[in-house]
Amino acid sequence: MSDSQAADDDSDRAEILQPPAFPFALPRIGMGDRFQDLFPSRRQASQLWQSFVQNNDSMLKVLHIPTTQIAVFTWMEKPGDVPGDISCLLFAIYFSALTGLWPDEVSAIMGRNKAEALGMIKLGFEMSLARANIMEKPSIMGLQGVSIFLQSMRAHRNSRSDWVFLGLALRAAQSIGLHRDPANFPQLSPFNIEIRRRLWWYLYLHDYRAAEDHGFTAETSSDYGSDVQLPLHVDDAVLDPAMTELPVPQQQFTGMTYPLVMIQAAQALRPLSHAIHTPKEPRATAMMMTTTTDINTAAGEIARQEVIGDLTRRVGQLLGYCNPVIPIQRAILLSGNIVLRKRAFISRLQLLSSYPSSSQQQQPQGSAFPSQATLMEESLAAACDILEMGNEYYQDEMLRSYVWVAESYPQYHLLLYVLWHLGVRPVGPNAARAWAAVEAAFDQEAMRITRQGGTAASRPSGPKWAMFYKLKEKAAKIRPPLVDGPAGGGHITVKETMDEDDEGVGVAARGYHAEGSTGESPQSGNPDTGFLEWDGELGDWHALLTDFNAQAYDL
Q: How many degrees, rounded to 5, is the angle at CA 445 between CA 444 and CA 451?
């Protein structure tokens, strides 16, 4: 490595270790400036509220819109007198609405660019948080504001600090008994019971996804001693503060369809982890296997498929209420299908790597296990499928108002897998397709930065994207001039190429070697391909990047 390359790498690592900066600059507010000056005008606030209700609420369902709307318009008239917890909620709603809007839409409403508008509203939220003293005096409305704000910040990539803040919010929620099912408290009305259930599950769901983003498994995520029942699948219109009993769940699309889909997906993580990592007793279908590892893999796959099948049935019932002609329902249908495919994909990789059977390496004819080459190509095709599904948010004009959903839930693990695959197996029937998916992911991240108020010259920062850039550079070095597959970036189906793959077509067979590669199969101890352990914990991204560099993976 040249001195200049070493200097560049040192510079990259130094940048990664710096505390992450917000993607927008905060305005300078002097001590003499008034807090109420941070509130948008009544016209602006009304437009932001309408945008939130139309484009954000069904994806962030913690509010009861009919009653919240009264509070919004009441305090819109007198911002100087608004209580701290209510102003916290108002600024969170405004911030969420701005996050979902495109820069030209923000300029039309706020009369300033998106970065400035976000900075002003964010500062208002932070000052409201301090005024309300949420951690010492938590309230339902204050915690609703915190939950909406933290969800919106996902589209701005604010590193781990938001996850830490979320932990504080969950403890504050526990302090007012949100982790206990409200039915345990006879003094609570049916309406308040439902609102509390919505809020708790929303915080809990956000904690699961944040933990996943930072490399922690379901086993390391706490359930906080909760016994809270799921919120009802009902629209706001059937909930009323004066009602004396809870309504019956509705058999149609409601504002709770999407949250319940995501809750079901989160609840599946623990049984999936149990199915994958718990040694199984031999089953009838596994008795032909010759090793304990083979038995565990077969039994684990049966258990995994049972969990995935049950999840698919429950989520499928909810998604069946969606009409793809209606944009919001199309967005929910797309997100639900993506999360189902992702759960199946990640759990399958975790199972295979948890039991790296030698039978996966060189398969005799008629073996019950597919070859390593087959498994790799099937996994790559599946990862590309999911990444391509996510592209629909950016390609479908009807989903323009919901691009923020894709920005909030980036498919880090899938992109990491595809880049890893291209780095160890640059030639194959889906190589061109994989590169197209990678380029699309990088383009979407660049769009996110500019959409959220950054400049076109801004480059994604933080340990995740630093690692993605290095993996991409490494894969590009060994990428042949012409990859297999039809012209124009098409791809051949996996089944059409299994015979060829089973004969060992790959990096070593084609003469393309990653630097330092021994030509061994992944998961066989080869340090050039074994750095990804898909066994449940991806690991903290900072530590993972440090590990890459420390072990000299030529990154």
A: 85
Domain boundaries, the chain: 24-243, 251-369, 375-555
Asked if 299 and 282 count as a contact pair (C-beta separation under 8 A), the reply is yes
Residues 6 or more apart in contact with residue 135 via CB below 8 angstroms: 168, 172
CB 327 within 8 Å of CB 392: no
- Structure tokens belonging to residue 279: 């040694």
Would you say residue 159 has pLDDT above 80? no
**In this predicted structure, what is the pLDDT of residue 43?**
96
Supply the DSSP string of 85-126, one letter for each residue. Answer: HHHHHHHHHHHHHHHHS-HHHHHHHHSS-HHHHHHHHHHHHH
Residue with tokens 């199969």: 521
Q: What is the rounded CA–CA span in Å between residue 15 and residue 7?
A: 12
- Residue 529 is predicted with a pLDDT of 39
The torsion angles phi and psi of 434, rounded to 5 degrees, stand at: -65, -45
How far is it, in rounded angstroms, from Cα 252 to Cα 276? 34
In our burial notation (b when 16+ CB lie closer than 10 A, e otherwise), range 167-206 reads eebbebbbeeebbbbbeeeeeeebbebbbbbbbbbbbbbb
What pLDDT, in 10s, does the model give residues 76-87?
888 888 999 999
**What integer pLDDT is reported at residue 496 of this predicted model?**
37
Q: Which long-range contacts (CB under 8 A, 24 or more apart) does 527-535 make?
A: 527/551, 527/553, 528/424, 528/553, 529/420, 529/424, 532/416, 532/417, 532/420, 533/353, 534/346, 534/349, 534/350, 534/352, 534/353, 534/417, 535/277, 535/350, 535/353, 535/354
DSSP 27: P
Q: How far is CA 133 from the centre of its chain?
A: 30
**536 Ramachandran zone, left/alpha/beta (phi>0; psi -120 to 50):** left
pLDDT digits (tens, 9 = 90+) for 347-403: 888 887 766 554 444 444 554 556 777 788 899 999 999 999 999 999 999 999 999
Collect all residues with Cβ–Cβ distance below 8 Å to 133 and sequence separation of at least 6.
Answer: 84
Confirm if 546 and 470 have CB atoms less than 8 A apart.
Answer: no
What's the pLDDT at 134?
Answer: 87
**DSSP 8-state symbol, 303:** H
> Number of C-alpha atoms within 13 angstroms, CB side, residue 201?
29
Structure tokens at 315: 């989520």
